[in-house]
Design brief:
Layout: E1 4-8, H1 12-24, E2 28-33, H2 36-45, E3 50-54, H3 63-72, E4 77-81, H4 86-93, E5 99-102, H5 107-144, H6 149-161, E6 168-172, E7 183-190, E8 193-197, H7 210-220, E9 227-234, E10 237-247, E11 250-259, H8 267-275, H9 277-289, E12 301-304, H10 322-334, E13 341-344, H11 351-361, E14 369-373, H12 379-387, E15 388-389, E16 401-402, H13 404-407, E17 412-416, H14 423-435, E18 437-439, E19 446-448, E20 452-457, H15 461-466, H16 472-478, E21 482-484, H17 495-509, E22 516-517, H18 519-527, H19 533-547, E23 552-553, H20 563-566, H21 578-592, H22 603-607, H23 611-621
Parallel strand pairs: 1-2, 1-3, 3-4, 4-5, 13-20, 13-21, 14-17, 17-20, 22-23
Antiparallel strand pairs: 6-7, 6-11, 7-8, 8-12, 9-10, 10-11, 15-16, 18-19
Helix pairs in contact: 5-6, 5-9, 6-9, 10-11, 17-19
Bound molecules: adenosine-5'-triphosphate.
Residues 317-319, 345, 347-353, 416, 458, 498, 534-535, 538 line the site of adenosine-5'-triphosphate.
Domain Sigma-54 factor interaction: 317-546
GO molecular function, one term: DNA binding
Modified residues (4-aspartylphosphate): 54
Length: 628
């Protein structure tokens, strides 16, 4: 069936040419609207499958206003823009678009961007449907389960963890009952570990004590709509998701999730919770009716389910910080699906470990796992590395070569350092991913491939796009399910476990040395900022274990602080912005190279920047040569 497209564009010629191109490709044009008002009228007449909307429209409402409405209505949309002014881009990105088309439009790009947008939308629907089915099935099992009340409640909490990330959950089983025993509170302390607080128990650092809960109950009473809040403070947390559960049309119970991290809840969580609201109420009702087990062990109780402490595939991954658990949850959630996954994080944070775990948790685990490090392969060989080549296709290609796409057939292809991929290869990669077929270099036939792509990067891809080094359409195709791993300095609570783990490993590999770390040495590890993240910690400990003459490491020889940190600012010195410093630095390099940008001895080489990146930075900072 033809896909229905609505075009919202006030420039007649542009709208008309888009419409002709799309009609020729078999799309149905639902109409051309010149303003948000006109667009809304057309949408009311019949929902389009996708909307192409100009960011700047005449009238009071802009394309961004329309985008917000479309996002709420779950209609995918692509922005049309000639201007990549950064503030507008930031605002536009926040509306959750499925892509951007930059004017003047090229036919091929229009079609590719539309295909990607449709792919992303289909994947999100598919993801939601499967999540819903999976959660419903789990809830049904818990409802039918025999067992004591606390056992069933724990199974319930564990089931919810995979779908609604939380660090603390409050299940209120009887809102009308002023008894603290009607409220169940659990804190998540590991991937599959929880601490339960019974009536009178102390929920630790988080002040969710009974008086707080009474106040929250009072505030929520009568509220029938689930909501989420991000970025505010709630008793020490930064995110909250609340859902009322109805019985006989009355709000009788509720579930509240709290997260230590910002922005963990979204409209998707609301959609999912609403889709199982009735079942959640039935499960809690069945738990309420099951046998009470008040005479249980002292409180608070740390609960681990034997044999299921951690998914074995995640076992080598050390740490229990909320930031790490958030990433691990996402890995476990997305693994069974076929989605492309993009993993972002600074160098050495553990991206590769997560990618391997993802493959192991996926249905492709018995098939090949193939890694390509896009930064380590010379540019002229990258294409043949990815897609292979035919004998004699270029000088030196004496043998036919099978590329990584073919080697990864039916398995996972891990594209590490994707931000380093040259733009020329990016378009070929995009085609290979989108069309699921490749052509060997020098080959004439297309070869079908079935690979799941997982890409990782330590670069800010949006900045790379702004600098002209990364294709917007490839970014949208890869960024279907993004996962960010926080740097070590933002999850310092993981340091002791990681340090102990590395001490043990390097102790064993250096002849079974048993080494421990003193408290003051551990404090040194805490105080440092770890620009090289876990890899840097690992190397530091390896060195100290090898050199350790005693069984205790009393102090670490910490790396020198970064040069910047050594500058002491006198009270009258002026602090320069990063842009000002960049400008001075670039001008200095240009002077040294006499204005030469590209090639050997050019400023690009000196600054370790691609000439294109350097030129766009110069343009942005208003640098010209000779310097005015
Ligand atoms: N949570 C963890 N538990 C145990 N070891 C870890 C953990 N995270 C990272 N490591 C170890 O730290 C080292 C660096 O990790 P890894 O290579 O996965 O980082 P990366 O993010 O892929 O870095 P880069 O961007 O430089 O490729 C590896 O030896 C890895 O085993």
């Amino acid at each position: 069936m033809a896909l229905k497209v609505l075009i919202v564009e006030d420039q007649f010629l542009e709208a008309d040419s888009l419409s002709i191109i799309l009609k020729n490709e078999g799309y149905e044009i639902r109409g051309i609207a010149k303003s948000v008002e006109e667009a809304n009228k057309l949408i009311d007449k019949g929902k389009p499958d996708i909307v192409l909307v100009d960011v700047f429209l005449k009238g009071d409402l802009t394309g961004i206003d329309l985008a917000r409405l479309l996002d709420k209505k779950n209609i995918p949309f692509i922005f049309l823009t000639a201007n990549s002014n950064s503030i507008t881009m930031e605002e536009a990105l926040a509306t959750n678009p499925s892509g951007f088309l930059i004017k003047p439009f090229r036919e091929r790009e229009i079609l590719m961007t539309l295909n990607i947008a449709v792919y992303r939308h289909q994947k999100s629907i598919e993801f939601f449907t499967r999540q819903h089915l999976w959660l419903s099935q789990l809830l049904q099992e818990i409802k039918d389960m025999n067992g004591m009340r606390s056992e069933k409640m724990l199974a319930f909490v564990k089931a919810l963890t995979s779908f609604f990330p939380f660090d603390f959950v409050v299940i209120d089983t009887d809102l009308a009952n002023p008894d603290e025993n009607a409220v169940y509170r659990y804190r998540r302390v590991g991937f599959d570990e929880y601490v339960r607080f019974d009536a009178g128990g102390n929920p630790g650092q988080y002040q969710l004590l009974w008086p707080d809960l009474v106040a929250i109950r009072k505030k929520n009473r009568g509220d029938r709509t689930p909501y989420y809040l991000n970025g505010e403070q709630f008793n020490g947390f930064r995110s909250k998701l609340w859902a009322p559960l109805l019985k006989h049309w009355d709000v009788d119970m509720s579930v509240t999730f709290y997260g230590c991290n910002d922005n963990i809840y979204s409209t998707e969580h609301i959609g999912l919770i609403v889709s199982v609201q009735a079942l959640l109420a039935e499960v809690i009702d069945s738990i309420r009716k099951s046998e009470d087990d008040q005479d249980s062990p002292p409180k608070p109780r740390r609960i681990k389910r034997p044999g299921q402490l951690l998914k074995p595939e995640l076992e080598g991954i050390i740490g229990k910080s909320p930031r790490l658990l958030e990433a691990l949850d996402k890995i476990a959630q997305v693994a069974p699906f076929e989605n492309t996954v993009l993993i972002m994080g600074e160098t050495g944070v553990g991206k590769e470990g997560l990618v391997k775990a993802l493959h192991q948790l996926s249905n492709r685990k018995s098939k090949p796992f193939v890694k390509v490090n896009c930064a380590a392969i010379p540019v002229n060989l990258l294409e043949s590395e990815l897609f292979g080549h035919e004998k004699g296709s270029f000088t030196g290609s004496v043998e036919k070569r099978i590329g990584k796409f073919e080697l990864a057939h039916e398995g996972t292809l891990f594209l590490d350092e994707i931000g380093e991929l040259p733009v020329e290869v990016q378009s070929k990669l995009l085609r290979a991913i989108q069309e699921k077929e490749i052509e060997r270099v020098g080959g004439r036939t297309t070869i079908k491939t079935d690979v799941r792509i997982i890409a990782a990067t330590n670069r800010n891809l949006l900045q790379e796009i702004a600098d002209g080094n990364f294709r917007l359409d490839l970014y949208y195709r890869l960024n279907v399910f993004p996962i960010t791993i926080a740097p070590l300095r933002e999850r310092k609570e993981d340091i002791p476990a990681l340090a102990k783990h590395f001490v043990k490993i390097f102790g064993l590999s250096s002849g079974g040395k048993e080494v421990t770390i003193s408290e003051s040495a551990m404090e040194q590890l805490y105080a440092y900022d770890w620009p090289g993240n876990i890899r840097e910690l690992q190397h530091l400990i390896e060195r100290h274990v090898l050199l350790a003459k005693r069984s205790v490491i009393d102090s670490f020889e910490m790396p020198e602080p970064l040069p910047m940190a050594r500058f002491s600012l006198s009270s009258d010195s002026q602090i320069k912005s990063f842009d000002e410093m960049d400008k001075e630095h670039i001008i200095c390099a240009l002077r040294k190279c006499n204005g030469k940008i590209a090639g050997q001895g050019g400023a690009g080489e000196l600054l370790k920047l691609r000439p294109t990146t350097l030129r766009s930075k110069m343009k942005r900072l208003g640098i010209t040569w000779p310097v005015k």
